[in-house]
Amino acid sequence: MPDDLAPPAASSDGFFRELDTQLLVHELKGPLSLIEATTRTLIEHTSRLGPLTVRQERALKRVLRGAVRGRRLVDQLLEIGRVESSQFGDASFAPAEAVLRVLLDAVESVDGELAGRLPEDSADGEKLAVLAEAGVHLRIASGIADLRISQDPLKFDLIVGNLIENGLRFRRRLLDVAVDREGSNLIVTVADDGPGIAPKHHALVFERYRQVAITDSFERKGHGLGLAGARILARRLGGDISLESVPGQGATFRVVIPCGQTQADEREPIGD
Question: Which distant-in-sequence residues (6+ apart) come within 8 Å of 242 by Cβ?
Fold first, then answer.
């Protein structure tokens, strides 16, 4: 009977306001890390645990990529929370090495087929050559390979990783990642040849929980957190992210991050 119906439940907004959301997000790290570690063990220790068929290995690698993506989303949410609490790390690191590592991780997470073609236990140059054949290029400007900057390395990885994963998802064939320096700022650009984004939507892609329809039949997939979180992190590090794009001509995201104290580091050049 209508008179016997329970009163309407409280809105989900009210429900989540009453919870310690950051604690819940943090608690997700445990099961995701367990899935990731167990899956890696099954893949990497077949001599001890038993051989895998090709289909089993392929399936486990898909599980692993999913666990890694989930853990990265959790890490990103926690980092945004730390930023809003004014918690920052400061360490010296080589941005060229960081971008290369993030690029390889993003390929593993987003494009399993391409990741499977990368030669294992090989030099970075060999992996970059395979990526270049697939249309994914890393360009390190002169002098950047020897550069070390003082910044928050985890937040840097999250910012650049989000943009590279975004570019990998929406490229038709080409993705160009470039690292350069302008004065006291490090510049990272990520350019794809995907469907592009109308100027009226440029601001929307950086809003939390917003999904932007790029064309009538194509919508950006995801949680609506990646680009929003990346811009929050970049701005709190003293930098910013900008977007240049028109429909049909791809998209170029440009990250500006202050270098902090810098120093030279003698290493082999990376990329083209």
Answer: 253, 254, 256
Which pLDDT value is given to residue 9? 46
What DSSP element (H or E) covers 272? none
Q: Which has the closest alpha carbon to 229: 159, 178, 177?
A: 159
- State residue 216's pLDDT score: 44
Reported as a pLDDT band with limits 50, 70 and 90, residue 87 is low
pLDDT digits (tens, 9 = 90+) for 89-123: 678 999 999 999 999 988 987 887 898 888 877 88
The pTM is what?
0.70
Query: Can you give the length of the chain in residues?
Result: 272
pLDDT interval class at 28 (50, 70, 90):
confident
CB neighbour list of residue 261: distance below 8 Å, 6 or more residues apart? 92, 149, 150
Query: What DSSP letter does each residue of 196-244 carry, written as one string?
Result: ---GGGTTGGGSTT---EEETTEE--S-S-HHHHHHHHHHHTT-EEEEE
Q: How many CB atoms lie within 10 A of CB 88?
A: 14
Domain boundaries, the chain: 1-87, 90-264
Give backbone dihedrals phi and psi of 34, rounded to 5 degrees, phi first: -65, -45
CATH class of 90-264: alpha beta
Ramachandran angles phi, psi of 251, nearest 5°: -140, 140
CB 167 within 8 A of CB 178: no
Tell me the backbone φ, ψ of residue 206, rounded to 5 degrees.
-100, 5
